[in-house]
Amino acid sequence: MASGRSQARARAAGSARRTYAAGTRSAAARRGNGGHRSRFSAVRLLLVAVLIVAGVKLVQVQWFDAAALSAAAERQRAQTIDIPAQRGSIVDRNGAKLAFSVEVRTLSVNLKALHKSMDDFATKNPGTAKTFDSETAAAAKYIAGKLPNAIGEQQLLDLFHKQASFTYLVNNVEPSIAADIVKHFAWIGVEKRALREYPGGGLAANIVGAANWRSEDQDVSKHNLHGLVGLELLRDNDLAGTPGRMLVNTKNGSDNVVIPGTERDLQAAVPGSDLELTIDSDLQYEVQRQLADYVQQSHAKGGQAVVMDAKTGEVYALANDKTFDPNDQSTWKTDDLANPAVTTPFEPGSVNKLVTATGAIDFGVATPESTVEVPGALQVADKTVHDAWTHGTQTFTTTGIFAKSSNIGTLLLAQKIGEERYANLLKSFGLGQRTGVGLPGESAGVVPARSQWSATTFGNLPIGQGLSMTVLQMAGMYQTIANDGLRVEPRIVKAKVNPDGTTVPEPAPKSVRVVNPQTAKTVRDMMRAVAQNGKGVQKGTAPTAAVEGYQISGKTGTGQQVDPRTHAYSDHLYNITFAGILPADHPRFVVGIRLDAPDTTLPVGHSAAPLFHTIASYVTQRYQIPLSDGPSPEVPLIIAP
Description:
About 35% of the residues lie in helices and about 20% in strands. It is of the alpha+beta class. Strand 21 and strand 22 form a beta hairpin. Helix 12 packs across helix 17 (about 515-525).
């Protein structure tokens, strides 16, 4: 029994242990499930928080910051570049083009971007034969073949391998050729530019000047033609127009490789205006040619010449013996770019005696036929004045004083005019003042202020020493006499033609009444005797200036130059001048000429009259000027004792 009870107790104990163990496992299970639920809830809360933050950020990006971020992205891949404006043309008085622009292309390459793209290609295509060297070698060969006169293959290879992130390759490429090159090598950059062309080369180059492009920023293609010298520079604002603006997308904001087809105009370019000049290009060519030949024949350092309309002051030709080719900047010399005809004054010599002749008639000091006893020498303060030839006391007519170019006779008449009236005449003729012709760098010349005159000043000025003028100013003096005493400012630009075709004439030139018409005609008639081919002493100083069938009125000049070594007047360096009116009886043109230090021992070196004859003969034919009413009457110059 005891044994039975023991077994019963053992079974009961085992059952209790199992019941306890089961209860224990159940409690543990309940505790475990609760922990899992807690961790899941925490993770879920964390995910919800993350999603909320992401949602807020997304809303901020898509809603509040969208415009700013979009603009920033656009700035990274968009560039604003210039659209070059069409530069206006420069034409002569007959519409012949002296300067105009044509559209061309400039080729360039972004070396940094090309290196990167070639490296990326090699990484993706191991063992490829397409490398930077092979690609640029092929391009160099192809471009050189297309542009054999512009650039060589080795030059291109050197540019491709230069140490730079960007380089220009070649300028002035025809658009069709540039398009073909880019078709074969898409990494070649192309920029629109304008090429300035001067069909006449050096024709009127000192007037027209030259223009070229300049780059303010190579990476954004700000290229526009701008004037460098001459009217191209002075009238740049009229000619240049206003560049437009274009927005383009680039493959990389820092590399500026333009994506084709992404160009969008922001502002259209406004073309420049054309300039119509008073110049006649045919006459300009002839004057340049004749002047250069004469300078060479006379062994002169240089020379200038001008042809003006006697009534309007319009400049038909303005030439220097030296010029330049605006099409080829590599050949330019600094001295040749200047325009000495308006920038370089000189002491004119006896052509300035026109002032004394005018004063003598206008103030009633003399008449053309009245006589003056002219001694062989004249003392003026501490200076003794002589004529160009040795003579004793001679009786000159007033006309003869100027036809023979007597220094002494001129000074005797000037003394009767008086210093004050003479000084006022110089001013009235425009000396010491810029003409306002409308060309850059114009000199006013030099006339000493009246308050600075010394005792010898009035012994120099009437014979053309001690003051200076340009050849244009010199011609302007004779234009005054040709135009019945009315001085008209010369001009060289006739009108501006706007892009819409409207013509805007230049402001009317100012005019100054110097003397009355009768005085001017009397002086003009007196000066006909300069070309008189009389016998012996009745011969003027310039019979070689005469043009058959036409009356010629003019004056020769020989002005001493200051020797740069001694700073005193030279005995062998001279300005040889001539100014003339054609025809004298019905003035149409005025011609002024200056030779700089010719060899005066040569037949063509001691006078510019033969050059005047050649130019005047061409002018009469080109403009079919009617013949004069008759030959100039021969008048007495020196009265025989």
